[in-house]
TrEMBL record:
<protein>
    <recommendedName>
        <fullName>Hemerythrin-like domain-containing protein</fullName>
    </recommendedName>
</protein>
<feature type="region of interest" description="Disordered">
    <location>
        <begin position="176"/>
        <end position="211"/>
    </location>
</feature>
<feature type="domain" description="Hemerythrin-like">
    <location>
        <begin position="4"/>
        <end position="122"/>
    </location>
</feature>
<dbReference type="Pfam" id="PF01814">
    <property type="entry name" value="Hemerythrin"/>
</dbReference>
<dbReference type="InterPro" id="IPR012312">
    <property type="entry name" value="Hemerythrin-like"/>
</dbReference>
Length: 211
């Protein structure tokens, strides 16, 4: 089983490939809205689900074991996720293939490109250095399972206030004494952020509410 950092990197590579496919379609006079939708819809949905999975599974553990200012890394990441979600919402609100739609797609891409570069250089690198292999693999299993359990992006598409998110997770970490590498119970205690009442305090400002 690949560890969570490998799985996140695989998603990043796929995101870049899908935006490249949209480039090709934009330059093809024969492409139509259906062709654009075929690429955009899975891409937009995976972007939302990927962000939510990171917020539930990866970033709580980075805050636990990271050494290179994980709070700052997490604040930046949650803010980036909000920008990505805003771009997706803007594109989805516009007729597909029109100027406003392409503007939303471009904003999504720019926000995602910035996020991926920072995450690969900072949070993922920090986590590889500090997290035990067993923890990375355990989180990788949870990351994979997350997408099986959440087939619809609408259920997780909402913004989070970065500072409230970090404060809430750090408070949960203060109350958790178990080593998260020892079992799924301790992982759920810290990483199951979206399935607890504390999610409400993390600042759901846009989009559908929690399940």
């Amino acid at each position: 089983m690949a560890d969570i950092t490998d799985l996140i990197m695989e998603d990043h590579a796929w995101f870049r490939e899908q935006f490249a496919r949209l480039d090709l379609l934009r330059g093809d006079a024969a492409s139509d809205a259906e062709a654009l939708h075929t690429v955009w819809r899975p891409l937009a949905d995976r972007l939302d689900l990927h962000a939510a999975a990171e917020e539930e599974i990866f970033y709580p553990q980075l805050l636990r074991v990271g050494e290179e200012d994980p709070a700052a890394e997490t604040l930046d990441a949650i803010g980036d996720h909000n920008d990505i979600r805003d771009g997706v919402r803007d594109a989805d609100a516009a007729p597909i293939g029109g100027d406003a739609w392409w503007d939303g797609v471009t904003r999504t891409r720019l926000a995602n490109d910035e996020h991926m570069a920072e995450e690969e250089r900072e949070g993922l690198a920090d986590f590889r250095r500090t997290a035990a292999a067993g923890l990375r693999e355990s989180l990788g299993r949870r990351f994979t399972t997350y997408f099986e359990q959440h087939p619809h992006a609408e259920t997780v598409r909402r913004d989070l206030d970065p500072e409230t998110y970090v404060d809430t997770v750090e408070n949960a970490l203060d109350r958790t004494t178990e080593d998260p590498s020892l079992g799924i119970g301790s992982l759920r205690a810290v990483g199951g952020f979206r399935d607890t009442d504390s999610l409400e305090s993390a600042g759901n400002t846009k989009g559908p509410g929690p399940q």
